Amino acid sequence: MKTRLSLFCVVALLFVASSCGNADMEKRVANLERRLNQLENKGVVRTQPSTPVASPQGVEEPVASNASFKWDNTLYNFGTIKQGEVVNYTFKFTNNGTEPLQIASTSASCGCTVPKHTKEAIPPGGTGEIVVRFDSKGKSGQQSPVITVVANTSPRQTRLNLRGFVQTS
After folding, report:
1. What is the DSSP track for 9-46?
2. Domain extent at residue 161
3. What is the pTM of this model?
4. 14-37 tens-digit pLDDT
5. Domain count across the chain
């Protein structure tokens, strides 16, 4: 009986997924990712000592549990571009915590996307940015690179998302 129920669930899921248009599915995924980021970025109270984070100078510093990102947005849809075009976008944030915010690293899910972040510690109330460069050379179709930001916040990782479509000529 359990096997039949599991099989029915899989078939139902496939039917629902195939009945939705690609644009609708992308919108749902983007909404879920945005909600996940919102939930992750709500201040989680730490009940254990701070964990060390390597600073850019290589010295370990304790994680400040009261540093916090407030993003202008965590998703940028660059629309439709032609293959070979480059998209540049700046994700801006404010430290709405009570301690300096230090970004330890930024990385992208593919080599076509290069993030650069503010190196200095951001004081409470201060602003910073992550500049992202997406190169569509050799790409085609729907693109969804993810940028992972590691900082002395709770949670330590934040995901930023690019979305768009690359057209071939």
Report:
1. HHHHHHHHHHHS-HHHHHHHHHHHHHHHHHHHHS-PPP
2. 2-167
3. 0.63
4. 333 333 344 455 555 555 555 555
5. 1
